[in-house]
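quick one, 87 residues, struct below
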Amino acid sequence: MFAAEDSLRALSSRRDVEQLTPAYIDTVLNQQERLAEAQRQEAEAVANYNIAIAKLEQAKGTLLKYNNVVMEQDKTPFTQAFYGKKR
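---
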């Protein structure tokens, strides 16, 4: 992606000296398309990575812990009987 950004930046800086010929405009548009595709691929890779991490943590049974979610223990009749009644 960085190469596509640098290439587009270089083309844009040449705009002042180049005439806006159809070939130049086509080159710029193609480079913009390559940059957009590189950005799309990066976003897809990040999303796939996050999905894989979530699936891994879920399979390990540690998804809530991984996301720093702490559940307060329920005060159901079972837990009161098991842990004793509140005094």
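Residues 2-83 form one domain.
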